[in-house]
Amino acid sequence: MIRAQIEVDRRADTGPLRAALEKILTNEPGSEKDPLVASWRLDLALLDRDLDAAGSLAGAVPQKEGRDFSLGVVARSKGDVAAARAAFMRARTQLEEELRVHPDNMGLLADLGLIDAALGRKEEALREGRRALELAPNAQEKMFGSCPNDVCAARDFVMICAWAGETDLALEQLEAVTKIPGGPSYGELRLDPMWDPLRGDPRFEKIVNSLAPR
């Protein structure tokens, strides 16, 4: 996905991430301008549900790092449908340009699938997510860091299904992917607003609770 993938404590505690960011910002002058640090700060604000801070941080994300997508996520979380749609449409235009050059880039396809899901383009979104899944085993590029491509593509497909309103399919896929090493963690599912479309469904809560530290 476009957003940085960050490790949240398995107990759904953002303290370690917050402490790490504070250390970086204190000890490394100018680090606040680093795109990766900016993405982590944005993710932390979203995990904290501090949407005003998230909006400011999203606006500072470089365009090539997914500024419009981030703005769309914040607007969606605030319930601002018009602003979210406008931001996702801008992000979609940029992604289409990139896909014309790299039509089989699984990361770009997964990103487009999530955006199309947000825009109500259900069939296109599911098709793009499935195509990313097909490409994952043979892809040379890494989607994010050390995350195995097939696991990350599967996680993205679950999220695409959730955003597209395919709740049954999303939950079926989520139950499977959480059993794979590197799949969504308890902390991620408990805190990340990207999973909000499933939140409140008893089946989702059961999956989340099954991952809670014992």
Characterise the protein shown here.
The protein has helices at residues 15-27, 35-47, 51-60, 67-78, 81-101, 106-118, 122-135, 149-163, 167-177, 186-191, 202-210. It starts with 14 loop residues before the first helix and ends with a helix. Helix 4 (67-78) runs antiparallel to helix 5 and helix 8 (149-163) packs antiparallel against helix 9 (167-177). With 214 residues, it is mostly helical. The protein is built from eleven helices and no strands.
List keywords for this structure.
globular, mainly alpha, 64% helix
Number of extended strands: 0
Give the helix/strand class. Answer: mainly alpha
Low-confidence stretches: 1-6
Work out the radius of gyration: 16 Å
Question: What best-fitting shape do the alpha-carbon axes yield?
Answer: globular
Share in β-strands = under 5%
Distance between the termini: 30 Å
The DSSP helix count reads 11
Q: What is the residue-mean pLDDT, rounded to a whole number? A: 87
Question: Which series of helices and strands comes N to C?
Answer: HHHHHHHHHHH
**Largest sheet report:** none
Percent helix: 55-70%
